[in-house]
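Q: You know discrete backbone vocabularies at least as well as I do. I have my own habits and do not want them to colour yours. No explanation is needed for now; the record alone will do.
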Amino acid sequence: MEQVEGKVAFITGGASGIGLGMAKVFARAGMQVVIADVRQDHIDQAVEHFRQLAACGLGAQARVHPLRLDVTDRAAYARAADEAQRVFGPVQVLCNNAGIGITGEMKRASYDDWDWIIDVNLKGVVNGVQTFLPRMLAHGGGGHIVNTASMAGLLTYATAGLYITTKFAVVGLSEALRSELARDGIGVSAFCPGGVRTQIREFEKTRPERYGRSGYAGAPPVRPPPASEVLEALREFSADPVEVGEIVLRGIRRNDLYIFTQPEFRDGLRERFDAILATLGEPDPVRAARLRRLAPHLTGDPIYAAEAGKHA
């Protein structure tokens, strides 16, 4: 989708952090943007930002429409989609960006911790796709879906097992959906940011009562807090949300499958995939020959068909 001016974007978690960075960049590029968020205070701050831009003669406010949305509420999602279409018309760009960042050892987690993070980080993406994809297909004008995963969707680190579980799932969902939608002219990107200066750690302020029994409530920290110089170094490494919004917009225009913010993770990715390949070992010639013979019958299974083609 090289031409984005006039297109309609719907961004969840759109009133702060990465989502607001996307909204600012998209609006500046001439898009009409719905910023959906669960926190009214963040919505109010975002609206004030765009109001001030409009007061300066930049005209961005008319291209932004705020609404409150809990991405775990499917009925509310449908109403939000109706409102977005009523205000701006059909949505062409969907950014499933809302997320929470529960961290801690999995052995301490409660069912409520698991349910909440899965409902927001994974089912929130599913709800966005299920709500908007039929509308995008019916409109027939193509489009693009960006699912915010994380570098934690490709690389693991200690004491973030719940978060990592959901983000690995979002990457897989995005890869599969992209294959399905290629013929429909709808691109899909797995957005895997590294460090970004956001307020994701404030997620507990939005914890609903139905997920109230956390295994981490009152638990001592797993490790001491980082020293101030370490925190400052992390901040310097972390990207600015508007910079990240520019990266996402470029990925949409190029129809990138993966969108990354920091190339410094390259070595970690290489180590991971080298370890996988080393464990696989070398192909067996007999099995490869068997796969070649099966090739004509594997058109319905793209993974096996692709591998059979490589051995043909």
User: Anything to note?
Assistant: The mean pLDDT is 89.
